[in-house]
């Protein structure tokens, strides 16, 4: 049988070995000694936790990803949509994350859901669909401010998907189609206006040089003849028609 001093020494060695804790680089240990927290968290690396006097709570400092489930949001223009998002955050003060809130992961999740419904309910549907980046920054700012007392830093918030009712999808499609038709008509009108300006300039040039109209006649005959068809075209100047009309009118007046 071993002597009592050896047994005591063996128990002491086992106790010291059980007190050895290894914390990773991204971990910190908040130590409670007799129920009172120590001033500074311990880690990373080798630390000693003397149980049952000490109790350690491990806190990870890595960025956590929180998936916000789809939320029913009523926009300012009374449109009901389903919106889900993702929140990226990390613990910057392990001591606050342990002391100020019982479960900072669950608390941040619930706060993200309520904030999502609150912020997106203040905007109209068009703003929700077109100004996503602005809303993401606003959500991140509000969440970061609310979670600061918990020692949590919200790094980024992204609205992932906006599900619209079927009737609203059809209405948006009709609106987009009408907008495309409007732009097409404007472009067509601009083209007609530009063509009219060019025709007016051409008419002014032809009026200064009457021979130009004869050249256009010849050019048109060349284009028709290049197709090897049997069509015969006799260019009839408009001046001849005007002259015949004047002769007829003069004959009527004399009669």
Short structural summary:
The chain has 4 domains: 4-60, no CATH class; 64-164, Band 7 domain (Tetrahydropterin Synthase, Chain A); 166-208; 210-255, no CATH class. The chain is 53% helix and 23% strand. The protein has helices at 4-19, 94-99, 104-120, 125-130, 132-147, 166-208, 211-225, 238-254, and strands spanning 20-23, 27-33, 36-37, 45-48, 54-60, 64-74, 80-91, 152-163.
Helix content: 40-55%
Our Rg estimate from Cα atoms comes to 42 Å
Would you give the CATH topology of the largest domain?
Tetrahydropterin Synthase, Chain A
Secondary-structure class:
alpha+beta
Largest sheet: 3 strands, antiparallel
The level 1 CATH classification of the largest domain is: Alpha Beta
Fraction of residues in β-strands: 15-25%
Q: How many beta-strand runs?
A: 8
Our count of domains comes out at 4
Query: Judging from the principal axes of the Cα atoms, what is the shape?
Result: rod-shaped
Second-tier CATH architecture of the largest domain: 2-Layer Sandwich
Total helices: the number is 8
Strand order of the largest sheet: 3-2-5
Mean of all residue-level pLDDT scores: 84
> Gap between N and C termini, in Å?
158 Å
